[in-house]
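Sorry to interrupt, but I need a hand with the structure work. Can you supply me with one protein entry, sequence and fold together? No commentary is needed, just the two lines. Leave the record below and I will have a look.
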Amino acid sequence: NTAFLVPERNACGHILIEALLSDLGYDHMFIDEKGEPGILLNGKNRDEILAMMEEDLRLNKFKLNSERTIMELLTFVINENTKKPEADDGQTDDLVMALAFASFATKGLIGTPGIERENEPEIPKIYSDTKSKYKVMIPTYGESVEEDITWVLRN
């Protein structure tokens, strides 16, 4: 797996990073300017990271096909009391923050070479059924599961 991870280093994020590095030997993740893996989120850089995401959204630098993320963005508001951006009462901001982390982390990746792999896995074949949906068979633990990926391919 060569997925580029951007874990948050606050609170229990340390446990995740340690498990990735020590237990799984997985080190393909965001490294900050101090050489530490993950993002240590604080009041100052949170605002900067959210501003980068907002700019990317306004400039259409990436495409959102996740209805859940879009719905979360619509409930991500400026708190009237604190004047800080956050999830509205009764809502969550997990997907918004994940999008912000991705926006922030990819700034340093653009133009860098990808990771070369010795044993590249076969790319699953995409097919369409009679209902004009795109599907792919994903191999999992000894079997294959059919996954609808129409949402990824929408314009």
Q: What stands out?
A: Helices lie at 13-23, 43-58, 67-74, 94-106, 150-153. The mean pLDDT is 81. The two ends are 27 Å apart (CA to CA).
